[in-house]
Amino acid sequence: MKLDRLQPLSETAWTLTGAAGAAVKLFATRDLLEAMDEKVLEQIANVARLPGLVGAAMTMPDAHWGYGFPIGGVAAFDAEEGGVVSAGGVGFDISCGIRCLRTNLTLEALVPCLEPLADELFRSIPAGVGEEGSLKLSVAELDQVMRGGARWAVERGYGTPEDLDYVEEYGRVEGARPENVSELAKKRQRGEMGTLGSGNHYLEVQVVERIYDREAAQAYGLAEGQIVVSIHCGSRGLGHQIGTDYLVTLARAASRLGIDLPDRELACAPIKSPEGQQYLGAMNAAINCALANRQILTHLAREAFRRVVPGARLDTLFDVSHNTCKVERHRVNGGERRLHVHRKGATRAFGPGHPDLPPRYRAVGQPVIIGGSMGTGSYVLAGVRDNPAFSSASHGAGRAMSRRQALQRWSGRELIDELRGRGILIRTKSMRGAAEEAPGAYKDVDAVAEVTEAAQLARRVAFLKPKICIKG
């Protein structure tokens, strides 16, 4: 990205000068910005032109260009001022997120079991393009999933009620409307509950290699040498189909209502319009589907661990979604407002004292997870007070190059062998998929985490090093 149109506000925050619409703010260092695609700036400037935006349209340090709205983008809209909801601002993989589990195991104790554990997890976790699991649901049962979220899964024996205390919205969002979801979307999901998917989705066994904030680490139950598990996936085919369906619906609504879209991929409708309400009902149904999916995968991971390591305990540390539009209350210019906050490839990051946090974490802030690539590492951070981005933070390392470019540079087989030499076991059904997700195709996750902290979006708590990675 060229910086000639940007003005620095600090070493980690920049604004766009001379643009139409509301303000634009990019959280990044000069180096991270220069490595970003030019289209990130074009896309976030387009978001700033949408009706009813409150404050600035923002990007996180891991931003890269996406469909209409940049991945790593954050924008809040006020329904009372004609604010809109945008399917492109949520993304296709609705509620893609990370479930992080802490274990009672140490790396030292687990080393002899790493190979059989990798094999058992690979057998137990359905992964891959269009891969289905053993759970086949009727349309009526899927409607129950979409209303009940992770609570539905726990009620059917997939996990424990204690899990729900550490899932956003305690496992279920309000406002889900399965009747707003197409039959095609439901058909695509009937066999996909409890599956990982493909692309950048993964299940990783990681070790806590470094602690930055001992108070928060203690609250989260983390210690150096401890094994944790991260599950990254979303609402699978259902969410993707909802995104596809409503891009058309919202584009027609925008045309009917005379909304001048700077980019057709930003299809949107006023939050209070019939189309806006229909989309929000369907999107909330997909969020619940994703929460249930990660709950089932948590159960499958526990079973796999216990078959290899009897006595293994995996407790939910936190479950946070990335691609959502959530109704939240935020203080703006001294007053509290009810806003619809879009986070596409960004994570919520409530600071200490927030009433929606479970009591265990209320003093230190919400766990925030920056998922890295399979060869580098991930970070656990904590939300901070006075976050300048509507309580939002980075969600991952962020791609530095396209999948096509990665395929031209890396061989899946060679990459897996190289990682094995570094002590990281990869299990995947797709060598192509492994090459597409090569660590070198992503930004430097250390830099993203450091800038996230420097920009006061969240503070680092722990660094996690991968030991086993299961991919589709």
TrEMBL record:
Pfam families reported in the protein's UniProt record: RtcB
EC number assigned by the record: 6.5.1.-
Reactions catalysed according to its record: a 3'-end 2',3'-cyclophospho-ribonucleotide-RNA + a 5'-end dephospho-ribonucleoside-RNA + GTP + H2O = a ribonucleotidyl-ribonucleotide-RNA + GMP + diphosphate + H(+); a 3'-end 3'-phospho-ribonucleotide-RNA + a 5'-end dephospho-ribonucleoside-RNA + GTP = a ribonucleotidyl-ribonucleotide-RNA + GMP + diphosphate
Enzyme class: ligase
Keywords: GTP-binding, Ligase, Manganese, Metal-binding, Nucleotide-binding, RNA repair
Origin: domain of life: Bacteria
Example GO biological process: RNA processing
Molecular function per GO: GTP binding; metal ion binding; RNA ligase (ATP) activity; RNA ligase (GTP) activity
UniProt-annotated binding residues for GMP: 200-204, 322-323, 371-374, 378, 395-398, 471
The UniProt record lists the keyword tRNA-binding: no
Keyword Cytoplasm: no
Cofactors, names only: Mn(2+)
Binding site for Mn(2+) 2: 232, 322
Cofactor note: Binds 2 manganese ions per subunit.
InterPro entries: RtcB, RtcB-like_sf
Residues that bind Mn(2+) 1: 93, 201
Active site feature: 395
Subunit (UniProt): Monomer.
Family: Belongs to the RtcB family.
Name used for this protein in its record: tRNA-splicing ligase RtcB
Organism: Pelomicrobium methylotrophicum
